[in-house]
Amino acid sequence: MTAPVIGVTTSRSGGWRSFLLHRLALARVGARALRLTAGRDVPHEALDGLIIGGGDDIGAELYGGQVLPDVRIDPQRDKLELALLEWALPRSLPILGICRGSQMINVALGGTLHTDIYEVYVQAPRMRTVLPRKTVHIVDGSRLDRILRCNPCRVNALHHQSVDRLGRGLAIVARDEAGIVQAIEGAGPAFLLGVQWHPELLVFTPAQQRLFAALADAARTARKGQAHTGGLALTASGQGSR
User: Fold this and answer.
1) Neighbours of 130 (CB within 10 A)
2) What is the pTM of this model?
């Protein structure tokens, strides 16, 4: 079987750096990354899995949040990722959300966000680091727990938003020591997982590499299940086709 193809969404500005890290992480587990960016034609290629990546804040109007004047948003990226999720979720395409991507999964399923975690979790340390210095506690027996096999785990922290009210069919499976949601996952059998940290920056940490390995394994299974249709594909408008 050829390598499963994983679509990876990135920011338009500087997103190529993030994409290179994802491409490395996926290549190490036998998968191929395909960059998806707002403002460019969506490649006409079958996708076996999806990573909704980190970067820009999500527009507050999408979840009824407070609009902050000093954050970077990209409405076109919001639109692309919502379209991708609208296409992928009903098809049970394996999906991994990273930081912003975890939040976008929640919003796409009707959930809301804390626009600024420090206004809600006032005692939380203002941590911003690419190094694994935040401690997160994983729900025993969850999909994430079975993948990471570390509990508690040490992760990095680059966010100022987080999940507030959960979207449909999601469960909280990790929090940090301040109580901030650090991971969510779908309640059904499909691979649907969102983490608030950036595992692509911890690519040589075995526990974090297992996230990408699990996504690639789920994508291979999805490809087998779709073999009679040639896989799943996107049109240039971002809508799904089979």
Assistant:
1) 12
2) 0.91
Phi and psi for 69 in degrees, rounded to 5? -75, -15
Cβ neighbors of 225 (< 8 A, separation 6 or more) are none
Instruction: Count up the domains in the chain and report the number.
Output: 1
pLDDT tens sequence across 68-109: 655 678 899 999 999 999 999 999 999 999 999 999 999 999
The answer to whether the CB of 40 falls within 8 A of the CB of 112 is no
Closest CA to 143 of 95, 191, 91, 102: 191
Which residues is 57 bridged to in the sheet?
73
Name the residues annotated as catalytic: 99, 198, 200
Domain that holds residue 149: 5-241
Q: pLDDT, tens digit, for every residue of 105-159?
A: 999 999 999 988 888 898 888 888 999 999 999 999 999 999 999 999 999 999 8
